[in-house]
Design brief:
The protein is α/β, with parallel strands linked by helices and 345 residues long. It has helices at 23-26, 35-47, 55-64, 87-98, 118-130, 138-150, 156-163, 167-185, 199-205, 210-216, 221-230, 242-247, 249-257, 262-278, 292-304, 308-315, 322-343; strands at 2-9, 13-14, 72-77, 80-85, 107-114. The two termini are 38 Å apart.
Length: 345
């Protein structure tokens, strides 16, 4: 693969319709994909992130600098140019030209690849989107991993080399993507109600014992999709509580017959029963004697119940101890993450 730098006429460069950040948004148009619809998808994708590189700020930066700081990357094949990386920059140039903004927006700097192999193109996409600095929703990452495995037939060793992580993690993300589409996407009213921010719940579903607990209770994965849709499981980390909830008849009834967040009511029932059995309340168990797991249970409840006013005090450092308190929480996070990495599969 050869790479050369050139200045190209923006109208000769086509958008990459396989761009992972917008592919899901373009699916609804079928074969009716237009430049305007691609532009809208790119703008929506940029504005939908928490990154400072939103569409508006990037456009302002390009205007202030009289051009993009970095060249786009295009693949040249059969005399045509397709933008592999930099589709948002390309869209901004085309829009500025359309708006007759001050400056010359008819040409753009580009790194031109001559007849790049599919693997080369995927490597560029991965570097730009999957492991790059820009935020990318987990569902779309998993969708792209699914594409690499099932359409590009890339083996796991190559996927790990390209995307990082490990085989188990990649498998879970792909399986979660499949389950979310089959058992959740198909039961919501329409695509406007399909919330990709529910994806981590389906990642939790792939962990040991979760599916077995559902099947052992005489239920199936369609039920799981409905629990997510109806909000019975609202905080997605509570998916990991399903085995103990479904194993207990009373807790199972509270969960299945309840409304939104009913899994939390079911776990509270189990926690209260445990405290009654030991004859000890949270206050009676000293910190020194409490097990790590008991402390974790209590800490989870305290974090979930923390009032917004207290969060604001910590965030805005409104008292003299706030800085120290945030530091303690950050240290806890680092230690916990280290432990989880040590025990992860």
């Amino acid at each position: 693969m050869e790479e050369n730098y050139a200045t190209l006429d923006v109208e000769t460069v086509s958008y990459d319709t396989e761009n992972p950040r917008i592919k899901i948004a373009l699916e609804k148009y079928g074969d009716q994909i237009t430049a305007e619809r691609i532009y809208f998808a790119l703008r929506s994708a940029a504005e939908g992130t928490k990154s400072t590189s939103s569409f508006a700020s990037l456009k302002g930066s390009i205007l202030a600098s009289n051009g993009a700081l970095y060249p786009i990357t295009v693949n040249q094949k059969d005399g045509k140019y397709v933008c592999i990386d930099g589709n948002t920059r390309l869209a901004i140039y085309k829009q500025l030209a359309k708006e007759h903004a001050a400056g010359d927006w008819s040409k753009i700097k580009a790194a031109v690849l001559d007849n790049a192999e599919p693997r080369d193109i995927e490597s560029i996409r991965v570097a730009a989107h999957l492991i790059g600095a820009r935020e990318w929703p987990a569902y779309e990452k998993a969708r792209y991993l699914h594409y690499l495995r099932d359409q590009q037939f890339m083996d796991y060793s190559k996927m790990v080399a390209l995307c990082g992580g490990n085989k188990t993690g990649i498998e879970r993300q792909i399986d979660a993507y499949h389950d979310m589409n089959e058992y959740y996407r198909d039961i919501v009213v329409d695509d406007t109600a399909f919330r990709i921010d529910r994806f981590s719940g389906f990642v939790e579903l792939q962990k040991p014992r979760i599916k077995d607990a559902i099947f052992d209770a005489g239920l199936d994965l369609k039920d799981f999709g409905e629990w997510i849709r109806d909000g019975k499981i609202f905080r997605l980390e509570t998916v990991r509580d399903l085995p103990k909830v479904l194993h207990d008849d009373e807790a199972k009834r509270v969960f299945l017959d309840g409304g939104p967040r009913s899994i939390e009511e079911a776990t509270k029932l189990l926690d209260q029963r445990k405290r009654d059995a030991t004859g000890q309340s949270d206050k009676e168990v000293t910190l020194e004697k409490a097990s790590l797991y008991r402390l974790a249970e209590v800490l989870v409840r305290r974090i979930n119940d923390i009032p917004h006013s207290e969060v604001r005090v910590l965030r805005d450092r409104e008292n003299e101890n706030a800085e120290e308190q945030v530091g303690i929480l950050e240290h806890l996070s680092v230690c916990l993450q280290g432990l989880l990495e040590d025990v992860s599969e």
